[in-house]
Design a protein that fits this description.
Number of helices: 12
Shape: globular
Radius of gyration: 18 Å
Mean pLDDT: 86
Order of helices and strands: HHHHHHHHHHHH
Number of strands: 0
Distance between the termini: 12 Å
Low-confidence stretches: none
Number of domains: 1
Largest sheet: none
Amino acid sequence: MTQKKAILYMIFSAIAFSLMGSVVKYLSTFNVYQVVFFRSVGTLLFTIPLIVKQKIPFWGDNKKWLIIRGIAGVVSLTLFFKSLNYLSIGTAVSLRYTAPIFAAILALFFLKEKIKPIQWLLFCIAFLGVLIIKGFGAEVEAIGLVFVILSAVFLGLIFVLIRKIGNTEHPLVIINYFMIMAFVFGGIMCLKYWEQPTPLEWGFFLSTGIFGYFGQLYMTKALQAEETNLVAPIKYLEVIFTIIIGTFWFGDVYNTWTLLGILLILSGLIYNIYLKRKTS
């Protein structure tokens, strides 16, 4: 039952993050630091009142790991938002979610979670999909690729850090650390580049925090409940959601090679989940 809950949590997270990413893409005319700032504001409107209401210790117990997780989150988020200035939303998400590969490798060294030889093969298949997207798919700007892969590395680190923290911290505390750091970083950095949003854009800005809150909450719950190797790859489902949104909202076009690359990524994901469930 715990395993099923963890998988459902990560699916909900993928849906929420796909909506958040699409709104951020829409707001890409604004400076990325302003987007990071509003992303944090929208989420803090949820986390701080809930922490106070539920009388949860505001600063938690594992302050060192919470701070490291927060820093990794800010770096990953900022790099991903930057990549959306250069890549289509579906391509950016597809490339970012090489993160489970980095998460599995880091978990092997730091959490001693085992990786079967067949899983290494599946990770290679998924990464082959990335190479196909870069080499033969729709044009991918190099700077966007660098931003999104670095974002994926830090996202993989986040998976491992949350698993390291485990159930010793409330999910709201973990999220709150991340958002407070994003609030301070984004707020300071955006002062120089501030642009006044329209009323509609204000709504979009705040929605990034709302979608981000639910995405972060369910991702944290999933990673606390099950092994990183099982739940982290499920975030690849975000690719499907963002491709659909990108096609209908932004008019993105994905050629055959791009779709083949995405198919390889998803194939590696699905079979990896099957193997983990079969052996658990």
